[in-house]
Amino acid sequence: MKPDEIDYDNLTFSFTETKSMYVSKCKLGEDWKKGQLIPFNDIKISPAATILNYGQGLFEGMKAYRTKNNEIIMFRPEENAKRAANGCLRLSMPEISESVFLDGVTNVVKDNIDYIPSTEKGALYVRPIIFGSGEGLGVAPSSDYTFMVYCSPVGPYFKGGLTPIKLIVTNDYHRAPLKGTGGVKAVGNYVPGMLPSGVAKKQGYAEVIYLDAAEEKYIEEVGAANFFAIFGNKLVTPNLTGSILPGITRDSVLFLAKNELNMDVEERRISIDEVMKADEIFCAGTAAIISPIGSIRYKDNKYNFSNGEVGKITNKLYNFLTDIQFGNRNDDYGWIKKL
Ligand code: PLP
Ligand code: COI
């Protein structure tokens, strides 16, 4: 789609084709090299590729913003590079280097600059993917790998932006086991959530809350976002046990709560029963930003939080974080990369 054909006033979190994408290839046992931009198009792949048969692949998600001064900025993209590199190791793929990862991301953003909305309307969502593109019949790492980056202008992940969402706790499904791949962005982590999330949406909920796979008692995540609960001046989030994705928004929220709002911050297990006593709860991620949670359905009960409104501290954290991300506040922590 051409940039001037897009309805920027009504962006949702959905895919819109842009001008170009980035591609680099690598063989098992070799190092990644910088790739190149090509027009956005379908790709050719063998039906025997390990990504198609065994899910050998991962993705990343990040956003480029257009500031009020018309500068283009990104938020902590080096952290996405690190997480992708860890994921490569867990999924037996050649470890992506920070320089190649950032080369792909920055080139795609710059070449698709005309697709970046103003921050009141949305952002350019940047999607790096790394996958086994070589053939393999036995369950073993592919001989060939592809790193691609594409992008899409997006609006809010949850309808209504900063309005509290309704969630339901599932006792029928788990997101990830303790020693599995929940801690990296393996593509295979996401398809199991489509069924529970689809059922929840039909029932009027925005997403599902997953409990831990071992005891089914402790909060793991909200779909594709990390979970937070506030008790007075204390912010609690599940500790990174291995099954939970180490969110970059999560890390930033914890840092801001501690250093800017002088909150006590705890990373520990938090049971669903304890959550019901929280003053405010929210979830956070690149797509979700900070989304306040207004109510939770758990078994036969419905629990309301902050009278269905945006909690005071949640609101403060949202403003602090987005002021930095949107370039409206000084970047005291070196989180912003100008392109
Ligand atoms: N949890 C899961 C399962 C995710 O897919 C994401 C999205 O990337 C997050 C949490 C939030 O991570 P981040 O803040 O780095 O986007
Ligand atoms: C993100 O927040 O970037 C994510 O990866 C969520 C995505 C699965 C939509």
TrEMBL record:
Superkingdom of the source? Archaea
* GO MF annotation: an example: branched-chain-amino-acid transaminase activity
Obligatory cofactor(s): pyridoxal 5'-phosphate
Listed SUPFAM superfamilies: D-aminoacid aminotransferase-like PLP-dependent enzymes
Give one Pfam family, short name only.
Aminotran_4
- Bilayer-crossing residues are none
Which keywords, in A-to-Z order, does the entry hold? Aminotransferase, Pyridoxal phosphate, Transferase
Q: Which GO terms describe its biological process?
A: branched-chain amino acid metabolic process
Family classification: Belongs to the class-IV pyridoxal-phosphate-dependent aminotransferase family.
| Name recorded for this polypeptide | Branched chain amino acid aminotransferase
